[in-house]
Specification:
9-stranded mixed β-sheet; 43% helix; 276 residues; globular; single chain; alpha/beta; 9 helices; two-stranded antiparallel ribbon
Length: 276
C-alpha cells in the first residue's frame, strides 16, 4: 500500500527520521560555526588586550642600564608590571630631548622623568616615586676653593637635553657657561681628565655617580662631591592619551603594593641602592 508516494508506513517513518536527522545535523553544524566564530572573537579580544606600549628610554644607571639588553631598577620593575597587566613593551632609545618631544606628540606613552625636572606645559600623568635621588655637585679633586655662589667663574658640564632647575636662572641670563655631552659617563670622563679642573663642575645623581665610580676606578680617584644641589623623586611620566592614563593608573596601583615587597628590596640591592 502506498502512502503519499511511499511504499509503507515503515518507509515513511524511516525517511522522516532521516529528514529530521539531516535538519538537526545542519542546525548543529550552524551552531558549531557560530560558536567557533564567537571563540575567535573572544580569542582576538584576549590577544588584543596585550597592548603594545612605547617606552622611551635613555641610559641613566643604575635606573636604566644597557648590558646587551636593557635592565636597571626601572626596567626590572616595569617588566614585572607589564607581565602582570599584559602589556607588551617596545623600548625606544631616544635622546632626552627627542623623548620629551615624542611624549608631547603622543607617539610615546611613558618615559623616565621627575615632576621637578619637567618644563613642559602639557598635563601629564605621573607615577609614584620609584626612588628619591640626591643630586650632588661634583668637581675634580684639585678644584680648590670651589664656590657655587660665584657661578660666572665656573664651567658647567651637563648632558644634552637635560634641564637643571637650580642652574636655570644663571643659564637664562648667560651668567654661567655650559658644555653638553651625550652621557653622564662622558661628563665624568671630561671632568676626571682635568682639562678644566680648576673651574669645571657637574651635577649628577649620587647613585649614578657611585655606579660609575665602581666601574671606573679613576673616577673615584679624581672626583669629589662638593655638596648636595637638589633632591628629586625619580618617576615615570605618562602621556595625556586615554591609553597612557590607563597605563599610569595601572602602574601606580601596581607600584603601591610592590614597593612593600621583599622582591622590590632585592631589586634595590641588586643595583646598590638603599631602601627608602
Amino acid at each position: 500500500m502506498e502512502i503519499g508516494g511511499y511504499q509503507s508506513y515503515l518507509d515513511y517513518y524511516l525517511i522522516k527520521v532521516e529528514e529530521v536527522a539531516l535538519i538537526s545535523f545542519v542546525k548543529v553544524g550552524y551552531f558549531c560555526t557560530c560558536l567557533c566564530t564567537l571563540l575567535a572573537v573572544v580569542s582576538g579580544r584576549v590577544a588584543s588586550s596585550e597592548e603594545h606600549i612605547n617606552f622611551a628610554i635613555q641610559y641613566y644607571p643604575p635606573f636604566i642600564i644597557e648590558h646587551g639588553a636593557e635592565q636597571g631598577l626601572i626596567i626590572d620593575v616595569f617588566k614585572l608590571f607589564a607581565a602582570q597587566y599584559r602589556y607588551k613593551i617596545n623600548y625606544l632609545l631616544y635622546p632626552e630631548r627627542r623623548s620629551s618631544v615624542e611624549i608631547e606628540k603622543g607617539t610615546v606613552e611613558v618615559r623616565m622623568e621627575s615632576e621637578l625636572w619637567y618644563r613642559g606645559i602639557t598635563p601629564m600623568c605621573w607615577s609614584e616615586p620609584l626612588y628619591v635621588i640626591e643630586d650632588v655637585i661634583v668637581t675634580h679633586k684639585q678644584a680648590e676653593q670651589f664656590d657655587m655662589t660665584d657661578v660666572k667663574s665656573h664651567l658647567f658640564l651637563g648632558r644634552f637635553g637635560y634641564t637643571y632647575p637650580q642652574l636655570e636662572p644663571y643659564l637664562e641670563h648667560d651668567q654661567l657657561q655650559r658644555k653638553d655631552y651625550y652621557s653622564e659617563h662622558d661628563v665624568l670622563s671630561v671632568l676626571a681628565g682635568g682639562g678644566h679642573k680648576a673651574i669645571a663642575f657637574t651635577i649628577i645623581g649620587r647613585p649614578t655617580l657611585r655606579w660609575y665610580q665602581l666601574q671606573h676606578a679613576h673616577f673615584d680617584e679624581k672626583l669629589v662631591i662638593q655638596g648636595i644641589s637638589d633632591v628629586a623623586p625619580l618617576q615615570l611620566q605618562f602621556g595625556y592619551s586615554q591609553k597612557a592614563k590607563t597605563l599610569c593608573n595601572d602602574f601606580n596601583h601596581f607600584l603601591t603594593d610592590f614597593k612593600k615587597t621583599e622582591q622590590f628590596k632585592k631589586i634595590l640591592l641588586k643595583y646598590g641602592l638603599k631602601g627608602q
